[in-house]
Amino acid sequence: MWGKSLAAGLLGFPLAVGLIGLIALLWPGRIEVVTLPWLLMAFPVWIGAMSLAFVFKTGLRAWLWMGGATALCFALIHLAKTLGWAAELPA
Fold first, then answer.
1. Phi, psi (degrees; rounded to nearest 5) at 55
2. Could you tell me the pTM of the whole model?
């Protein structure tokens, strides 16, 4: 139980930030208009991400899946920026 709780506490927030960031970055429309509604969804997504840790059978699986999902989200954010898929901020 401690493994799952630590995974929820330490990986829940970065996973939520990665998901919200990826969605806000790739959502069609102007980035300054799209970002605020998605930022308002950050708390419910964070709670959902923390709850996700308790779905797994063991703490190790929770750490591996949530850590992998977090790394994947941030890798996709960087890939989207590199390939130019992300909307640019106005100057």
1. -80, -30
2. 0.86
